[in-house]
């Protein structure tokens, strides 16, 4: 009877230690393979660029851009400007809710995969633009710089996704930097590249 009671206490102690270990791993290493619930809630802050939020900058560009897109499709007598047409497929990359807003967002491995796919898709569109359009050397260099920026973003996403023992603090910094890279990517695509093609 005494051995049975000792066995139950030892088993309970081991189970408790395992649960504590998994809880600690989940908290300190939210995306590790030992984490029970692989997710991290990122709380973005409000950043202003010349007294405007990123969302206001994107919306102002989008309003102007949509007029140019309508005008482009109304002018049937000439070839379409692929820069205007293809930008429609690149913009959603920079309009992700976690980039525009300040509400907390949950980052999970599948969201990182989706983000990576969208970045690769936008990069492919930019490469196609580079191949299909006759840009000046300056415009081509600006587009190449935008493509390089997307390659950097891809690497950042892969680093977050593949690093198994990234701490909560490191993850917060990495996601904050990734958010800044996306925002910089938008500004760099719009001006100098897009504006120079107008």
TrEMBL record:
The keyword Membrane applies. Keywords: Membrane, Transmembrane, Transmembrane helix. This is Uncharacterized protein. The chain crosses the membrane at residues 7-29. It comes from Virgibacillus halodenitrificans (Bacillus halodenitrificans).
């Amino acid at each position: 009877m005494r051995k049975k009671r000792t066995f139950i206490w030892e088993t309970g102690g081991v189970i408790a230690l395992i649960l504590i270990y998994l809880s600690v791993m989940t908290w300190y290493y939210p995306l590790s393979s030992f984490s029970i619930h692989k997710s991290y809630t990122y709380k973005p802050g409000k950043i202003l660029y010349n007294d405007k939020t990123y969302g206001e900058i994107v919306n102002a560009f989008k309003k102007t851009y949509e007029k140019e897109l309508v005008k482009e499709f109304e002018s049937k007598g000439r070839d379409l400007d692929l820069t205007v047409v293809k930008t429609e497929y690149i913009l959603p990359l920079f309009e992700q809710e976690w980039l525009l807003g300040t509400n907390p967002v949950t980052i999970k491995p599948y969201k990182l995969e989706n983000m990576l796919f969208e970045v690769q898709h936008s990069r492919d569109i930019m490469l196609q633009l580079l191949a299909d359009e006759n840009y000046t050397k300056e415009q081509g260099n600006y587009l190449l710089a935008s493509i390089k920026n997307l390659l950097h973003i891809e690497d950042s996403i892969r680093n977050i996704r593949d690093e198994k023992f990234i701490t909560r603090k490191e993850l917060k910094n990495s996601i904050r930097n990734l958010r800044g890279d996306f925002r910089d990517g938008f500004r760099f695509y719009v001006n100098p590249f897009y504006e120079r093609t107008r």
